[in-house]
Here is the input.
Amino acid sequence: MDLSGVLSDNEYLYVLAEVKRREGGKAVDFERLLASGSYEMVSRLAAGHEGRDTIIIPPFGSHDFPPYEVAQFFRKYYKAGVGCGDGL
Here is the structure.
Protein backbone atom coordinates (compact mmCIF):
# COMPACT_ATOMS: atom_id res chain seq x y z
CA MET A 1 0.00 0.00 0.00
CA ASP A 2 1.34 3.47 -0.76
CA LEU A 3 1.61 6.30 1.76
CA SER A 4 -1.79 7.80 0.92
CA GLY A 5 -3.40 4.38 1.44
CA VAL A 6 -1.77 4.02 4.85
CA LEU A 7 -3.03 7.46 5.85
CA SER A 8 -6.58 7.09 4.54
CA ASP A 9 -9.01 7.64 7.42
CA ASN A 10 -6.03 8.32 9.74
CA GLU A 11 -4.90 11.83 8.78
CA TYR A 12 -5.33 13.07 12.37
CA LEU A 13 -3.64 10.06 14.04
CA TYR A 14 -0.08 8.80 14.33
CA VAL A 15 0.36 5.70 12.20
CA LEU A 16 2.94 2.99 12.79
CA ALA A 17 3.72 1.28 9.50
CA GLU A 18 6.21 -1.32 8.36
CA VAL A 19 8.12 -0.49 5.20
CA LYS A 20 7.67 -3.42 2.83
CA ARG A 21 9.66 -2.06 -0.12
CA ARG A 22 12.11 0.74 -0.86
CA GLU A 23 13.25 2.19 -4.17
CA GLY A 24 16.55 4.05 -4.06
CA GLY A 25 16.31 4.17 -0.27
CA LYS A 26 12.87 5.82 -0.35
CA ALA A 27 9.97 3.93 1.26
CA VAL A 28 7.32 3.17 -1.36
CA ASP A 29 5.26 0.26 0.00
CA PHE A 30 3.86 0.06 3.54
CA GLU A 31 1.77 -2.12 5.81
CA ARG A 32 -0.19 -0.25 8.46
CA LEU A 33 0.36 -1.81 11.88
CA LEU A 34 -1.69 0.57 14.05
CA ALA A 35 -3.01 4.09 14.42
CA SER A 36 -3.25 6.11 17.63
CA GLY A 37 -3.68 9.66 18.82
CA SER A 38 -0.66 9.28 21.12
CA TYR A 39 2.91 9.61 19.82
CA GLU A 40 4.23 8.05 23.04
CA MET A 41 2.07 4.95 22.60
CA VAL A 42 3.05 4.49 18.96
CA SER A 43 6.71 5.06 19.83
CA ARG A 44 6.59 2.39 22.56
CA LEU A 45 4.96 -0.07 20.20
CA ALA A 46 7.54 0.74 17.50
CA ALA A 47 10.26 -0.20 19.99
CA GLY A 48 8.57 -3.60 20.28
CA HIS A 49 9.03 -4.07 16.53
CA GLU A 50 12.80 -3.61 16.76
CA GLY A 51 14.62 -5.21 13.84
CA ARG A 52 11.77 -4.45 11.45
CA ASP A 53 11.83 -1.43 9.14
CA THR A 54 9.09 0.61 10.83
CA ILE A 55 8.17 4.25 10.47
CA ILE A 56 5.94 6.53 12.55
CA ILE A 57 3.88 8.79 10.31
CA PRO A 58 2.75 11.97 12.09
CA PRO A 59 -0.77 13.37 11.67
CA PHE A 60 -0.12 15.62 8.68
CA GLY A 61 -3.80 16.65 8.75
CA SER A 62 -3.08 18.43 12.03
CA HIS A 63 -0.69 21.29 12.76
CA ASP A 64 -0.23 20.35 16.40
CA PHE A 65 2.89 18.17 16.53
CA PRO A 66 6.56 18.90 17.30
CA PRO A 67 9.06 19.42 14.47
CA TYR A 68 11.28 16.56 15.70
CA GLU A 69 8.48 14.10 14.84
CA VAL A 70 8.43 15.37 11.25
CA ALA A 71 12.24 15.21 11.08
CA GLN A 72 12.22 11.63 12.40
CA PHE A 73 9.59 10.68 9.80
CA PHE A 74 11.70 11.99 6.93
CA ARG A 75 14.90 10.36 8.26
CA LYS A 76 13.17 6.99 8.33
CA TYR A 77 11.25 7.59 5.08
CA TYR A 78 14.50 8.17 3.22
CA LYS A 79 16.54 5.87 5.54
CA ALA A 80 19.02 8.69 6.15
CA GLY A 81 20.89 10.05 9.11
CA VAL A 82 22.03 8.71 12.43
CA GLY A 83 19.57 6.75 14.53
CA CYS A 84 17.26 5.49 11.77
CA GLY A 85 16.84 2.12 13.41
CA ASP A 86 16.42 3.31 16.97
CA GLY A 87 12.61 3.41 16.95
CA LEU A 88 12.42 7.06 18.03
In short: Confidence is low (pLDDT under 50) at residues 84-88.
